[in-house]
Amino acid sequence: MATRMFSNLVLRGIAQSRVSRSSMVGQGLTYSTRISGDSDTHEDFQPTNKLKDSGISIQDVVQQDVKENPVMIYMKGIPDAPRCGFSALAVKVLQQYGIPISARNILENPALKEGVKAFSNWPTFPQVFIKGEFVGGSDIVLNMHQNGQLKELLSDIKNASAKP
Amino acid sequence: MAVTKDDVEAALTSSLNPSHLQVIDTSRGCGASFELEIVSEKFEGKRLLERHRLVNAALAEQMPHIHALSIKKALPPSQSPARS
User: Which InterPro entries match (chain A) (predicted)?
Assistant: First the structure.
């Protein structure tokens, strides 16, 4: 499984709202350990890797992302430079609330893209997660912004925004 | 493979039996891109996210070939008097 191959995906790639670090993501995520696709290597002799041993896959990384970041968006581009109108829209809406937004650029990593899609069972980007829960894409975020649900959902995050 | 408006309409009609369906091709000739409004009894009692999931599922076959899909409305008949 391709997702398994990215067991070294680490969190440092996350772009905080105004920090354009996410260009690191793509490079940081590439195959940094030996992954054995070698069918005649006995598993005892395969390289060990802590993350792999702890069962960390792309799915786990996504799970951790959304758990640790109250507002997490997987998007095309980065918040400061979205590469798609829908991603731009979602970011713009979320930015109305003055809350920290964490983002990953899925354009830089096809495995992450597929992993997120599988995680949420949602076919398109952007994908917004709030307090660990999948909220939806840009249409839903916009809709919730317009009907006040988003404000309600984000209210306690806003209060906690002093927290690093 | 290019997905046409007709393909999208056919897929949504067969899965969701909508009482109102409007598909607008917003591609302007580059990549398949659609906006849609749909009213279906299958949306009754479902949250927005679940309604969008039903639309996505109905278009599962077409989605890989659609560049952009904007679901403007996905409502059950009980919420869909032509407002806004």
Answer: Glutaredoxin, GRX_PICOT-like, Monothiol_GRX-rel, Thioredoxin-like_sf
**B84: in domain:** no
Tell me, yes or no, whether A112 lies in a domain.
yes
Q: Which CATH number belongs to the domain containing residue B36 in this structure?
A: 3.30.300.90
Query: How big is the CA angle at A69 (ends A65 and A75), to the nearest 5 degrees?
Result: 65
Phi-psi region of A130 (alpha: psi -120 to 50; beta: other; left: phi over 0): beta
Closest chain B residue to A136 measured between Cα atoms?
B49
Please give the tally of structural domains in chain A: 1
CATH number for the domain harbouring residue A128: 3.40.30.10
With beta carbons under 8 A apart, name residues in chain B contacting A143: 48
Cross-chain Cβ contact B68/A86 below 8 Å: yes
The ipTM (two decimal places) reads 0.85
Q: Is residue A68 classed as helix, strand or coil in its secondary structure?
A: helix
Asked if the structure places residue A45 within a domain, the reply is no
Q: Give me the tens of pLDDT residue by residue for chain A, a chain 164 residues long.
A: 444 444 444 444 676 654 433 333 433 343 334 444 455 556 666 555 444 445 578 899 999 999 999 999 999 999 999 999 999 999 999 999 999 999 999 999 999 999 999 999 999 999 999 999 999 999 999 999 999 999 999 999 865 445 44
Rounded Cα gap, residues A132 and A46, in angstroms:
34
Q: Is residue A123 part of a domain?
A: yes
Interface of A with B in 92-111 (CB under 8 A): none
Q: Which amino acid is at A107?
A: L
Q: Which domain holds residue B34?
A: 5-79
